[in-house]
Please model this.
Amino acid sequence: MLKNELKDIEEILFEQKYSDSNRIVQIDIEKCFSQIHRAWEKVIFSDIPENSLVRYFHYHLEVITNISDNLYRLEIDEKLIVPQSKLLELIDHLRKYYSNYFNENVLAPLMYHQRLMCQLSNSISYIRQRLQESNLNASLITCLVKWFALMSEDTDIIKFNFCSLHYFEYVVNRLSSIDYDSEDAERSLVSLLVRSNFNNLTFLVYYQDYVGIAIGDLKDSHEKLRYLVEQKAEVLSVPEVKNKGYDPSWPSIKTMITDWLQEEILLTKKSAYNKNEVAVLKIPLEMSVAHLSCLIRLLYEESVFATQNLQFIFKGFAGYFQSKRQVIISPGSLSKEFYSIDQHTAARVRDLLQRMIQRINRNFFPMVFAINATVLSYLSTR
Model:
């Protein structure tokens, strides 16, 4: 019968938290944790079904995390240093020897996060300094430095899952090997981030802008087409790490880049064969650029667009619409507002969507609208 092997440690913690007992000092910590190791070994070599083993080890990882965080929130006490260290060692042991049952999606203990940041602090400082002293693209540098700052933030509010922390460690260890003084530094860095599946949206926008500037210097459509095809072939040839990524919920950076490049290739081909460009009349909107960007983001995150290519979407809206105050909207301004939506903007767009819902109810569900109106009228008279 599977059981909670950490029950005794939980009881000790509870007693330590709510009484003046020194039991945590009196017990043999080494023996207690050795018993857990032996229990895990016994279970793994038993005839217990695989799905039960998954639940068993997932449960224990969550218990270890909860105990560790409870210890972290207690007042600093030398008596707690050893058990906290042993809990982290237990996580390391579980990850090393029972990796098939390690739940990467669980939020890691705060002490586990702090320990990892201490281990990586020298590498992070070195990489940050080399980036800021280099001649690399400013937006690429900012993208990485902001990620370092976010992951290194010393707080007990923001928590990361094991997957995010282990991916951060994986990338940082590889960034240390880049020669930031070489002429090919930016190309090497971009290649490394693509190989590492750094599917960060800011990095995707950087790459799109980088390619956009390059083809902007080319006047002939055939030259642009050749450049785009070469870029796509280069990205496709890059090997990509599996089961890792900046955001596991998003497509891989390789997929996002190649899909975008394919759309750019199709647009360039169309432009090459269509010599007579027709001026497009823009549709005026009673919306600001910020409100339009907020609406685009909502549609994008709800997968209304049949494409992951944000630059393509921004270009489309900029090409066919004009805002309340701007006749010419640039894709860059839409992109900027897309990533910096505030509560005021969100509230204005929410009001618009609520009015739309009311109109739908009034036009297509009159009975529901009438009932709601009656209820509101009744409530207002009380």
About this structure: The longest strand covers residues 283-284.
